[in-house]
Amino acid sequence: MTERAEQARRRIDLAATPGGRRVLFAALYLCEGAPIGFLWWALPTVMRSRGADSTRIGSLLGILVLPWALKFLWAPLVDRVQGPRFTLRGWIASAQALMVLTLVPLLFVDPARHFDLLAVLLVLHALFASTQDAAIDALLIQTAPESEHGRLTAWMQVGMLTGRSLLGGGALLVLDRLGDRGLIGILLGVLTLGILLATVYRAPSRLAGRASGDVPFLAALTRVLRRRTTWIGLAFAATAGAGFEAFGGFAGPLLTDAAGGDTDVAGRFFLLNAVLASAVGGLLAGAVSDRVGPRSTCAFAGVLLAGCLGWALLAIGHVGLVLPFTAVYLAIGAFTTASYTLFLAHTDRALAATQFSAFMAATNLCESWSVSATGRWLDDHGPRMVLGIATLVGLASLAWLIGLGTTSTPNAKEGES
């Protein structure tokens, strides 16, 4: 390849440079975050405004998160099924195409009359979205040096939050004018743009030096399963987010209740406050994580998060929920970025999709059980008690950080416990 051809290739390969990687992963996560914003922020708020009780909202969200919680079961396929013609880029683009196909029928389905069909389509969408997520995370691990992980994680969260903002809070503000079909059309457009991203980056088909066959994969899997930090990390992921996951699932309904059923308050909050606060918190935590380490950053952010959640819960029932709720989302951005960077540090590169997906699956399992339990008990016991218990669970789970040690990555020493 000539020098000019190599320069041309690098110009269109966003994965080849630090700045390009920030743009690439932020854009990929924006496309992933747009449908999540509608399903997790707008849909619960709309359901509440139309009379749905907390039990039904919590049950639906709990079901939709299951593919994310179980994605570790098929994530090994992402690690194993790769080749010169079908790389991680192929996995990402294929999953996005299937995400589009599961949303197209919603243009012709009446959600009120065909709720069961709607649920099935959304679960299938979540299945393909979670597969796309596993491939994106594997791409980051395989293409970016560890010194960039914190900041890249933060930019991924910025992209995710931007997508959530536009199709979460923004959707609530324009729902009456565009209608359900109009919003689905916008979602399809965003996902289609995501597929086009495949033309501006490259992805390795295999890790450098990785042998073919099943033995290396099985050997790596055995090595990972023997590590104590693997199991401690999974326990931390499955419990540490209990407070903010439960709060996040019902922040929209709580704001709507406080506004007397007006969804515009929640719409404006999710369009601006939640996104900007989370982005600021994430960018700060990403920079700090790369400098002082993700474990210490995670511990500080977890304590800050518990304090902000306590402030927000005390404010419920009084005027002025927006400020404490904004503080909660700033802390959420910091904690999620620090914890995801921590999981990256303890992920074996030979199992990039498999192991990191297991960590992420555990975080989604935490979301599933905490939101479902909150929905079941919220109306009977009140938000302060139920969300307060979830906050205490998350705070107590910070003790798992002690067992994660101070090493930056398990790849540095193959024999790490």
Describe the structure.
76% of the residues lie in helices and 0% in strands. With 417 residues, the chain is mainly alpha-helical. The protein has a single domain (3-404), classed as Growth Hormone, Chain: A (Up-down Bundle). Helix 6 (88-103) crosses helix 8, helix 8 (149-196) crosses helix 12 (264-292) and helix 11 (242-258) runs antiparallel to helix 16.
| CATH architecture descriptor | Up-down Bundle
CATH class: Mainly Alpha
Strand content: under 5%
| Structural domain tally | 1
- By CATH, the superfamily comes out as MFS general substrate transporter like domains
In helices, the fraction of residues equals: over 70%
Low-confidence stretches: 207-215, 407-417
N to C succession of SSEs: HHHHHHHHHHHHHHHH
Which fold name fills CATH's third level, the topology? Growth Hormone, Chain: A
Looking at the structure, what is the overall shape? globular
In summary, what is this structure?
The chain has a single domain (3-404), classed as Up-down Bundle (Growth Hormone, Chain: A), CATH 1.20.1250.20.
SSE layout and pairing:
Blueprint: H1 3-11, H2 18-49, H3 54-64, H4 66-69, H5 75-80, H6 88-103, H7 115-143, H8 149-196, H9 214-226, H10 228-239, H11 242-258, H12 264-292, H13 294-315, H14 322-345, H15 352-381, H16 383-396
Helix pairs in contact: 2-7, 2-8, 2-11, 3-15, 6-7, 6-8, 7-15, 8-12, 8-14, 10-15, 11-12, 11-15, 11-16, 12-13, 12-14, 13-14, 13-16, 15-16
